[in-house]
Amino acid sequence: MPSQGFQQVQKQTQSLVLAPQLRQSLKILQVSALELRDVVLEELQTNPTLEELPMDGVSLDASATDKPQAESPREADATPEHEKEMELGSRDFEMYNQMHEDYRESMAEDNGNYSYTAEDEERRKHFFDSITSESSLQEELTRQAKLTEAAPGVLNAFDYVVGSLDDSGFLTTPLPDLALSSGLPLADVQEASRLLKTLEPPGIGAASLRECLLIQLEATGKKGSVAWQIIREYYELLLRRRIPELARRVGVPAEAVSEAIEEIAALDPAPGRRFSADANRVVVPDVTVYKDEMGEWVIVLNNDYIPRLRLAPAYKDLLAKGTLAKKDKDYIQDKFRSGKFIISSIEQRQQTIERITREILKFQKDFFEQGPSKLKPLTMSQVADVVGVHETTVSRAIANKYIQTPHGLFEMKYFFTPGYKGEGGESVSNTSVKDRLAKIIEGEDASHPLSDQQIVAILGKEGITIARRTVAKYREELGILPTNLRRQY
């Protein structure tokens, strides 16, 4: 029987190790314009030899008599021959390192120019108390529960039950399992669940969507209504939208069933999501493509959110004087190299994005002229071959990037899509096929919706050969219901 335990084993392997600067370069290439600013600001905090210049190119300490710069500071700083653009005066390197310590000492002096009074503290406390934030689902439910007359044991179990809700506000774990895992009495857990279902928003704590909808109808005094009966007794028929059969089972006209379905559609299928953190993020185009007054296509990179950097002249003066200790000299030179690398990486990033955008414009010119229906199949390897970079570089360069076009804002990866060959040999992207599929279904007769096979036949007549299962896949990706659920009586 083999022995068990730890063993030391020598093994020879090959692996790719990325240098820190290469990792940083890849990160700069991959992030969006907004995120790039955060990356650069982080570097500014750790590299004292880097300086950020205002967007108008005027130096930080420039006076009214200073002359404007004749060239981009980001480009000029990449060379050691860069001329001074502002006069900071020489600064002792040791003094720079002691800056924060000296500041703290000056603030700690008993006879300082400024004292922190009780009135200041009161204003500070009022300021922070005035900052409002939305309550989480757990906080709101706990607040409501404490206003009830529930026993302490039930409130204790209530906290555990609330913590077991999913993002939609459903309690899908069986109560006996919750009691077993928490070590709390089952009676308290059951009572906490009943208490939860009486709180706002209605439907919270339900075990299923069906129960959630019933709770919401009961909360509005509609228990026993047609909508309530349909959900409680004929839920499966509701999912299949069998309106005539529902009307016969419930004993009401088909119009009443249609009205009840509209009433059900107005209910909240996920009452807990209104308390979810807002995941929306600001999207800023990294590139704008437009046609000028001469009818020529123009590519404009977004530099508004990218800090303009240069190497601080003061540290160049310190190195030139030759008075620094070796340790300090090596430190500044290392930071200079790091600063030059990040400036160069930003320039390289912008150039790569511009070149890739130019190739996208060349390959997808019909899209820019006429819209998404003219999008052609395009792979990253095609662009990589033309630009002269590796395919993975293209993948990183288009990640998290957006292009503003005459037809709207699109992710750069939107333009890279596989496709099909038409009867005439022309290429058709799958995005264009999806667009055409959506328009076919939009124009169908609602009382006799098209089947996937019928859609295949229509596309075939238009020269697009596609399988039925592919139509079903695209339909699901577009969020379009199958034929039986689209039928309206």
Q: What's the N-to-C terminus distance?
A: 72 Å
Shape: extended
Described by strand count, sense and barrel closure, the largest sheet is: 4 strands, mixed
How many distinct helices? 24
Which spans have pLDDT < 50 for at least 5 consecutive residues? 56-116, 127-133
The residue fraction in helices comes out at 40-55%
Helix-strand category: alpha+beta
**Looking across the biggest beta sheet, what order are the strands in?**
3-2-5-6
Number of strands: 8
Beta-strand content bin? 5-15%
Radius of gyration: 33 Å
Mean pLDDT across every amino acid position: 77
Q: Which helices and strands appear, and what pairs or packs with what?
A:
Blueprint: H1 20-30, H2 33-46, E1 50-53, H3 73-76, H4 93-97, H5 99-108, H6 118-130, H7 137-146, H8 152-162, H9 175-182, H10 186-196, H11 209-219, H12 226-233, H13 235-239, H14 243-250, H15 254-265, E2 287-291, E3 297-301, E4 308-311, H16 313-321, H17 326-363, H18 365-370, H19 380-387, H20 391-398, E5 402-405, E6 408-411, E7 419-421, E8 427-429, H21 430-442, H22 452-461, H23 468-477, H24 483-486
Parallel strand pairs: 2-5
Antiparallel strand pairs: 1-4, 2-3, 5-6, 7-8
